[in-house]
Design goal:
single chain, mainly alpha, three-stranded mixed beta sheet, 16 helices
Length: 339
């Protein structure tokens, strides 16, 4: 269930509790699951409980994959229930840490923006982009940096700042027929207060188009996700369960099978393909939860589907210039994407 689902359609407290229980079963995924649980609590208005979850993550003994994102989310939440000073201190700390993850920059910049700190928000968006893109104005920036470009464009539009190269790049990104210049026009806010029904209807239609594009970018379902075992995990798996050696004769063949299977699916017209990484401990835990033996090969696609449903799949094929999904460090075009 999406955290932004309206409260009349979901019990957000119950969904948060379910995610917490799932985090207990799959501790390796606790970070992502508890962040989603906190989002449900925020939507339910229980911001204190959400902060408790963020603190639980930040105080956990196991290292977090993205601690700066968790801190940014905590700061954004704190500011919403009158803990401005603490929120500002955390935001300053995140900016000083200079995280390489775009999401942390987006969260702190949008927190500043939502509280009318437009100059600070612009500076934060710019800091993040400077760190992650440098002087690059490539027509195809990494997908994860696009929210930074769009957010910076929005804030600068409200500040009535002249467009620069990054603003022009941002305006070229959306697939919607409505340009960012139009979507981010401050005058749109005024039209929402109009007494003219035609103006209101036109503005509502524009907002719906923007929201639909945003939801589409966020949802990215993976109806078909292929399981990828990193080399060490595959070795451990086959050593523990030799019956699976027929499924995985060698690591190289495993990688080749993944790529060929995905290409065949793409050629048949299957959309939204993904690759999901498996780990030996989580696979054993999954088998135990299903009451099945890990040596049962029919369990493997179910495991892949479950991981994908928990948001762990990445899109295939990788974007142009991106690293190959296999983890070799080479670009996809120079590795498994080579013709």
């Amino acid at each position: 269930m999406r955290p932004d689902t309206p409260a009349e359609n979901v019990d957000h407290h119950a969904e948060a509790a379910r995610l917490e229980r799932t985090a207990g079963l799959y501790p390796e995924d606790a970070e992502a699951l508890l962040v989603r649980a906190a989002a449900h609590l925020e939507v339910a208005g229980d911001r204190s409980a959400a902060s408790t979850l963020y603190d639980r993550l930040l105080q956990s003994e196991s290292g977090l994959e993205n601690p700066n994102l968790v801190r940014a989310l905590k700061a954004s939440n704190l500011w919403e229930y009158d803990h401005e000073a603490e929120a500002r201190a955390i935001i300053d700390g995140v900016r000083r840490a200079a995280p390489r993850d775009p999401a942390a920059w987006v969260v702190v910049a949008e927190a500043l923006e939502s509280h009318d700190e437009l100059e600070a928000a612009q500076d934060t968006f710019t800091e993040g982009l400077t760190l992650l893109l440098g002087d690059s104005t490539s027509p195809e920036p990494p997908y994860a940096t696009r929210p930074l470009l769009v957010g910076r464009h929005r804030v600068r539009r409200m500040l009535a700042v002249a467009h620069d190269e990054w603003d022009t790049l941002a305006d070229s990104l959306p697939s919607s027929s409505i340009t960012l210049d139009e979507l981010h026009d401050p005058k749109r806010v005024w039209s929402l207060g109009s007494d003219n029904p035609a103006e209101l209807e036109a503005e509502i239609n524009r907002l719906r188009a923007e929201l639909d594009a945003y939801r589409e970018a966020l949802s990215r379902p993976f109806p078909v996700a292929i399981l990828h075992w990193p080399a060490a995990e595959l070795s451990e798996l086959v050593a523990a369960y030799p019956d699976l050696a027929t499924e995985y004769p060698s690591y190289e063949e495993h990688l080749a099978t993944i790529e060929s299977s995905l290409r065949e699916l793409a050629a048949s017209g299957t959309a939204n393909l993904g690759i999901v990484p498996g780990t030996f401990p989580s696979y054993e835990a999954f088998a135990a939860s299903e009451g099945a033996s890990p040596s049962d090969a029919t369990l493997l696609p179910q495991y892949a589907t479950t991981l994908a449903a928990r948001g762990l799949a990445t899109a295939w094929p990788p974007e142009r210039g991106a690293a190959c999904w296999c983890g070799s460090g080479d670009t996809y075009a120079e590795c498994h994407g080579a013709v």
